[in-house]
Design brief:
The protein has 460 residues and is of the alpha/beta class. The protein is built from 16 helices and 15 strands. Strand 9, helix 7 and strand 10 form a beta-alpha-beta unit.
Length: 460
């Protein structure tokens, strides 16, 4: 029985879908004005893992992850670049798709873009105005009246009094209350034409929060099972989503809220100002993409994830051990029997709030036993269970000999040539030359393994 930590309830709860056998899940996706960074990688990989496990558990999953393709940052970047908003966002959506594919992230069932749902946003804003929860301001903006929604703060645990006391922004004379947030932004003279839409309140564009309410309700209905995203979105974005959606519908919006933890770099929060900000592409220049996926899943999704080259190298070595086990004992084709001891423990771990830490421990035990018993059956079970997490799906030798970033001058052909030269030196009993070649390969990070079937190699 699956249990997950519900941010709204602040406790782990047994998961009961609204419709038996079916799960509707919405995850806040990327704002596409730049390359995706490590924080985006964690969101993509974590909720890909969640969707995979739900499907492996027999659920029919409808997974929606949106794309924000209009907001202040996008407009600013397009103007700086001298390009259209559509050209900018199309370029970075393509880059996002490349990064996600490299990390083994399966495409969501739906990937709506904010610009495609402006009409639905108009309807939702109109309903909020009708319900007395929103109001047009003199400057052409439309605001949500936070104090008129009784449940505001229930996701974040923030009271209106605390929020008001902590308010540090300048008072906006167009707002009835400083806590109110924008639903519709009036167009500015200096904004490009492709950042403006006609609306009942004048030309403008949607606020950030309203888009997710409109897109999620369009694809999943006004009440659905799971809503996910990074911990940084809990407030104000997800809090505002609840206020908008429930304010319009009059009933519960989402049953279970899931938030993955922050990325830290050498124990400091990742930020551009600290100079420790890494895009996925920068990381993949140094590390194999499956190593990055393994690194993300090796930690519990709710815990902080500390990024460093040391931790990535440790993940690389650990994943190498699993692939080495598959290479040493070629796996049989195995259908997972969830009653078997290892599979049952793996399932129990995953059913316990997607505890990939314990599930990974089962994989390493399986690798050890498969190697000890030289069991193709256990090796096959290892491969099948790991595939549920999107791991160990490559040919072991391809991974072990893969470049994993920049291999420099030591291409596979050069390594093979050096091994052939070493073999010739050994045949000629030129031990000095044989040792020299082995040392040269070792210095380049190439591990030589001599065995009954000949010499094999892998990268450290």
């Amino acid at each position: 029985m699956l249990s997950l930590y519900n941010t709204l309830a602040r406790e782990k709860q047994v998961f009961t879908p609204i419709h038996a056998g079916k799960v509707d899940m919405y995850v806040c996706g990327m704002t596409v004005y730049d390359y995706c960074h490590l924080g985006h990688a964690r969101v993509m990989v974590v909720f890909d893992m969640v969707a995979r496990w739900l499907r492996a558990s027999g659920y029919d999953v409808n997974y929606v992850r949106n794309i924000t393709d209009i907001d202040d940052k996008i407009i600013k970047r397009a103007l700086e670049n001298g390009e259209s908003i559509n050209a900018l966002t199309a370029r970075f959506i393509a880059a996002m798709d490349e990064d996600a594919a490299a990390l083994g992230v399966q495409k969501p069932d739906h990937e709506p873009r904010a610009t495609e749902f402006v009409g639905q946003m108009h309807a939702l804003i109109g309903k909020l105005i009708e319900n007395g929860l929103a109001y047009p301001a003199p400057n052409g903006d439309v605001y949500y009246a936070v104090r008129k929604f009784d449940g505001y703060g229930k996701l974040s645990g923030k009271s209106l009094e605390d929020l008001r006391a902590g308010e540090r922004v300048d008072v906006d004379v167009n707002k009835q209350d400083p806590l109110d947030f924008v639903l519709w932004k009036a167009a500015k003279i200096d904004e490009p034409a492709d950042a403006k839409w006609a609306s009942p309140w004048g030309e403008g564009r949607p606020g950030w929060h309203i888009e997710c309410s409109a897109m999620s309700c369009h694809h999943l209905g006004s009440h659905f099972d799971i809503h996910g995203g990074g911990a940084d979105l809990q407030f104000p974005h997800h809090e505002n989503e609840i206020a908008q959606s429930e304010g319009a519908s009059g009933h519960a919006y989402v049953n279970y809220w899931m938030h993955n933890g922050f990325i830290r770099v050498d124990n400091e929060k990742m930020s551009k100002s600290l100079g420790n900000f890494f895009t996925i592409r920068e990381v993949l220049q140094k590390f194999d993409a499956e190593v990055v996926r393994f690194f993300i899943l090796r930690a519990h999704y709710r815990s902080p994830l500390n990024y460093s080259d040391v931790h990535l190298n440790d993940a690389k070595n650990a994943l190498t051990r699993l692939y080495t086990a598959l290479k040493g004992v070629p796996p049989a084709e195995v259908a997972i029997d969830w009653q078997s001891p290892y599979a049952a423990r793996f399932k129990a771990a995953m059913d316990d709030d997607f505890n990939t830490v314990e599930a990974m421990a089962v994989l390493f035990e399986l690798a050890h036993e498969a190697n000890r018993q030289q069991s193709a059956q256990l090796s096959g079970e290892l491969k099948a269970l790991a595939a549920v997490l999107g791991l160990l799906e490559r040919d072991p030798q391809a991974f072990l000999q893969g470049q994993g970033g920049d291999a420099g001058e030591w291409t596979a052909d050069k390594v093979e040539a050096a091994i052939a030269a070493r073999k010739a030196a050994r045949v000629a009993k030129n031990w000095a030359e044989s040792d020299r070649l082995r040392d040269e390969l070792a210095a380049a990070g190439i591990v030589i393994e001599d065995g009954p079937q000949g010499t094999s190699w892998r990268r450290q």
